[in-house]
């Protein structure tokens, strides 16, 4: 960010305001834990992490507004700590499940998983220290997410926008949807239809979740479209082709049971291969 976009530019040079305060430390720890947990759930569900910084910035502005004294530097520090929790969650959900997939682990051991997350977080901090200066000074690095967070913080600091009501309304609406789906079982979270024609499985499914709606809003239309196309290629197009190649895997004549057997032995590995290829292409570019 340029100096005009930095949060400190909205603090008068004549006043020295606190940044690391007890309320910021407590709120940062709580949001880092909550958003890391929610990000881990979303990543295991859809295969990618969403931004924790933007929700943390909005939540911190809504909560710190109730205190007598708060400033933009405190909000910036809270969202920074929350993004650190997101990074640790990403290190866990992108690596530890692989141990289950390759059958090296048969379950998730709490102590071992926590130790790996702690070690990964420390390594991330240590490796980021040598390149911090480059990341902060190279002007061709645009950091779109960082600029978006800066715009949110500036809008709150300059215009006094109160996001508490919108935050509460969105949270209550999402909680109501989850209650109707998971608690009361009166609203379907997904719909699937599979048909077995000879040895070929045809079909597909759609789903709705307030968590995924929020994740889609954060990742944006291009990423959401790529996930949709991946689902169509993997399930609608891939399942019929794989069912011809893996007939010996389908021990059940029930369509939805047979397609899950295909997913366990074939389709899931196709998805992993697509992710690996995307990573190699990104690194090569």
What this model shows, in words?
The structure is a single chain. With 285 residues, this protein is mainly alpha-helical. It folds into two domains: 7-162, no CATH class; 190-284, no CATH class. It has helices at 22-46, 53-64, 72-93, 96-101, 110-137, 144-159, 164-183, 210-219, 221-245, 255-284, and strands spanning 190-197, 200-207. Strands 1-2 form a two-stranded antiparallel sheet. Strand 1 and strand 2 form a beta hairpin. Helix 9 packs across helix 10. The model has no long low-confidence stretch (mean pLDDT 80).
Spell out the key features of this protein:
285 residues, mainly alpha, two-stranded antiparallel ribbon, 2 strands, 68% helix, 6% strand, globular
Gist?
The chain is mainly alpha-helical.
Secondary-structure blueprint of this entry?
Blueprint: H1 22-46, H2 53-64, H3 72-93, H4 96-101, H5 110-137, H6 144-159, H7 164-183, E1 190-197, E2 200-207, H8 210-219, H9 221-245, H10 255-284
Antiparallel strand pairs: 1-2
User: What number is the mean pLDDT?
Assistant: 80
Query: Describe the biggest sheet?
Result: 2 strands, antiparallel
Quaternary organisation of the protein chains: single chain
According to DSSP, the number of beta strands is 2
Order of helices and strands: HHHHHHHEEHHH
Side-by-side strand order of the widest sheet: 1-2
Q: Which range does the strand content fall in?
A: 5-15%
Give the low-confidence spans.
Answer: none
Looking at the structure, what is the overall shape?
Answer: globular
Task: Give the distance, in angstroms, between the N- and C-terminal Cα atoms.
Answer: 24 Å
Number of domains: 2
Structural class: mainly alpha
Question: What would you report as the Rg, rounded to the nearest angstrom?
Answer: 23 Å
